[in-house]
Amino acid sequence: MILSGGTGTRLWPLSREGYPKQFWPLLGSETMLQQTAGRAMGAEFAPAVVVCNEAHRFLVAEQLREAKVEGARILLEPAGRNSAPAIAAAALLVAEQSPEDVIWVKAADAAITDVPALHAALARAVVAAQAGRIVTFGMRPTAPETGYGYIEPGAELAEAPGVMRLERFIEKPDAAKAADLLADGRHLWNSGMFVATAATLLAELERFAPEVVRSVTAAIAEAKRDLDFVRLGAQAFGAAPAISIDYAVMEKTSLAAVVPADIGWSDLGSWAALWEVGEKDGRGNVVSGPVSLVDAEGCLVRSEGILTGVVGLKDVVIVTTDDAVLAMPRDRAQDVKRLVDQLRRSGQKEATEHRRVYRPWGNYEGLIQGDRFQVKRIQVRPGQKLSLQKHFHRAEHWVVVHGTAIVHRDGENIMLRENESIYLPLGCVHRMENPGMIPLTLIEVQVGSYLGEDDIVRLEDTYGRT
Q1: Is residue 86 a contact partner of residue 50, using CB atoms and an 8 Å limit?
Q2: Among the three residues 320, 344, 368, which one is the final residue of a domain in this structure?
Q3: Which residues form the MannoseP isomerase/GMP-like beta-helix domain (predicted)?
Q4: 200 and 251: one domain?
Q5: Bridge pairing between strands 188-197 and 150-157
Q6: Are 21 and 166 in the same domain?
Q7: What is the pLDDT of residues 98-128, one digit of tens each?
Q8: Could you tell me the end-to-end alpha-carbon distance of the chain, in angstroms, rounded to an integer?
Q9: pLDDT tens for residues 343-353?
C-alpha cells in the first residue's frame, strides 16, 4: 500500500500542492512514486493499492503505467484525513477478499538506496505480522536529526527473530535530546512504514479508533468504482477524524513491534535531506540542471531550466524554477514551510500552483499574460482529448506546432497539422483531441474580458469532471 497524499511543502518551490514531490524525479530518472512502486514488484507481491488525492488520480495512473506497474488499484481520497483513515480504507479494500493478507504500508516519497537490505528486513517483518503483530521499520540514525520521530526498541520477539518489541515512540526532539538519542545507540528513527495483516490492522483500529473505522467503512460502502479508481464516499470519509496511524493505533497497541534496518533510508523531507543523499562533487556540492559553480562548497543547487550561477557561497541551497527562486543557508531547510505559509497568507498562487498545470489529458503552461489576453502552451497526450466546452468571456486561437489535432467546433470536425491554426469565437462549442501516436503541442491565444479557468462550461467530459 502506497500513501501518496503528501504535499512536500519543505521542498518548495519544486514541490507544491498541485504537483508534489512524489511526482518528481528527485534521485535518478524515475519519480519517487515510481521508485517506491518498483520496490514491490515481483511474484511475492500483490498489485499495489495507492491512496491519493482525487486531483492527482491521473498523474498516479500515468506514472504507474510508465513504470510498467500493472493491476494497481487507486483509492481516491475526497479530502486528506491523515494516515489512519487512508490505511483503514486500504485494509478494508484488501479484507473484502483476503483479510489475512499481509499489507506493507509505505509513503510514496521516501528514498531507499539498499533495496536488498529492505527486502531482507521486510521478510523478518512479515513473519511477525503473520504472528499477529503490527511492525514498523526503525532506521539506524546517522545524525542527531530533529526532523524525525524516534523509536525505543525492547526485547527480541521469540516468534520473529530480528524483530523487537516496540517500547515507545518519542516525538521529534530538540537538538540536545536528538544528540542524546544518537549517542545511546539504542534508539531508531521512525520510518513510517508498517507491516501487518489487514485483519490485525482493522481489529486494532476498531479497538482504539472506532470512529475512523465507522466513517471509512461507510465511505467504502458508498464508493464508486471506475476502471482502476475507487472513489471513496465524500461525506462519510470527510467525517473520519484526521489522525495519524501513530496516534490512532501504534502508540496504544500492545502488538507494536519494530525491525531495525540499515537500508539507506531518507524521507527527503527537506532540501538538506536531499543534499545528504545526493551525489556530490569534489567540493561537496549537489547540482541538478543547468548550473555553473565557482568556488562554491557544500551547496545544493537545482535549476529546472534557467541557467543558475553561484560564486563563492558555502553550505547554501538555491532552487530555481520557471516562476520562483529559493535561496537559504542549508541549516535553515526546515524553515521553508514558514515561507510557504507566509506566501499562502499573502495570496501568492506560487505557494501552491506551478506555472505548468497538469490535467488528465496532458498539461498547459502560461507563457504571457496581459490586459485582456494571455498565451498558453498546451500539450495533449496521444489518444487523449479535452472536454467538450464553451466560454462566455473569451475567444481562442489555436496554432499546432507539433503533432496532429482534431478540433470539434460547433458540430464540425477539422483536422489541423503542424503550422495550421483555427479560430474559436466566443460562445462556440468546441473540443480538441490528439488522434496521433506522438504528443500534440499547440499555442493558445486567449482574448476576452475575463480569462480565468472557471470560465469553462463543460458539456461532456471523458474524465468525469464537472
Answers
A1: no
A2: 344
A3: 293-343
A4: yes
A5: antiparallel
A6: yes
A7: 999 999 999 999 999 999 999 999 999 999 9
A8: 30
A9: 999 999 999 99
